[in-house]
Structures are given as structure tokens and as C-alpha cells.
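Hi F.,

I've been meaning to write this up properly since the lab meeting, where we talked about keeping a consistent format for the predictions we share between groups. The idea is simple: the sequence comes first, exactly as it goes in, then the C-alpha cells exactly as they come out, then a line or two of notes. No screenshots and no reformatting. I'm using this chain as the first example so we have something concrete to point to.
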Amino acid sequence: TSGLCPYNWRFWWDYGTGETGNWCCHILEIPFWALDLTYPEKVSATGPAVDPERTSKGMDVVFDFPAIEGRGPVKLYWSHGGFNQAIREYRDQFPNIRMGNNFFVGTKGVISCDFDWHEVHLFDKTAEYQKPEETIPPSPGFHREWINAIKGGEPATCNFDFSGKIAEAGLLGNAAYRVGAAEPIRWNWKEMKSPDCAAIDEFNYPNYRKGWEIG
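Output, unedited:
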């Protein structure tokens, strides 16, 4: 029907995962790559009242990632359907900043960026930004990367080992929203369960109709 095809099927829980599942695998690639993120250890989500059939038009998700060698813990915010309040103070501090899909807050300043541009703004207005040397080789394009990988070359940049973690985070955010986890719940990624919220199992281990089971 016109209410589902060709695009709107994404906004029905029976078929899709809403804007979070639809876009996080693209937008969150930047922080996952830049900060070497893997699996969150805590998650919380808020938004409008849950509709059992339709995905949410707005959602705020907070992921807590553990510290690893070379960096401390990371708090990652996902928002759609409105402006994220967590970065409002920095927008006020840098009124001319260009807002993109991603916003990093560090100890010395902030970075606002999108898929093809970035801006760096330092808290110390007298300091001069020193651009680091480029270490990531230019991509020949994702089609060529895919073909090269098929032919036995280097794995594609966004291979399943990397991109699967991003998709999993987005789906976890949806599940946290649907169970009403407004306060952080712990997440055991190895077991795909939360020791704080058994209700989340409904979305990770659904009961499929006979004949449609997995495994």
C-alpha cells in the first residue's frame, strides 16, 4: 500500500526500526570509528509514549561505553525529532558553529561534523588549532571496496565485523525505548541480555510463527 511502500515501511515495528535503526548505522559510523567504540555497557532511552505499531517520531538515547587503552569512558547521545539538549551549552558558546550529524565534546574543544565536512572550535580562543597528519588513506568508493574484498583484497572499510556493532547499538536503543528504560540499564553484549531488565528479551528473542523460526 502507499502507506508502506516504497519508504514508509521503516516506521512500522512489524517491518522496520524507525529513524534510529534507519540512520544510526550511517551517522554513528563516525564516532564508532574515531573513538574505537565496540559495545555499550549501559543504555537508556526516552521519547513520546510508545506506540505498539508505529515507530517513534522522536527519541533520545544515551549509550555508555567503557574505557579502553588510550581513552577514557565515552557517553554517546543519539537524538532524532528534536535538538539534543546535551549540546545546547556548546551551541551557545560557539554561536557561529555549523551543526552537523555529529558533535564531539573533548577536553580542549568541540568538533562538529557531517559525512563530508568538519569544524574544530577550541575552548581557549587564543589557542591555535594544529591539524594532525592524515593517516586514513582515501577510499576508492564503497562499490570498489566491496568488489576488491570479493576478489580477495582488503576487507571493505565498513565490513560486517565493524558495521554490525553500530547496527546492534541502534537496535538496542530501540529496545530500551520500547521497555521504558528512562534510567540506564546494564547491557551484557556477550549474552545479549540485560541483568536489570528481563523485558528487553522480548525484542532480542522474539517468538516467531511456526515455519518462520530461526536456527
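Notes:
Residues 15-131+180-202 form a domain with the Dihydrodipicolinate Reductase; domain 2 fold (CATH 3.30.360).
Residues 3 and 9 are 7 Å apart (CA to CA).

If this format works for you, I'll send the rest the same way.

G.
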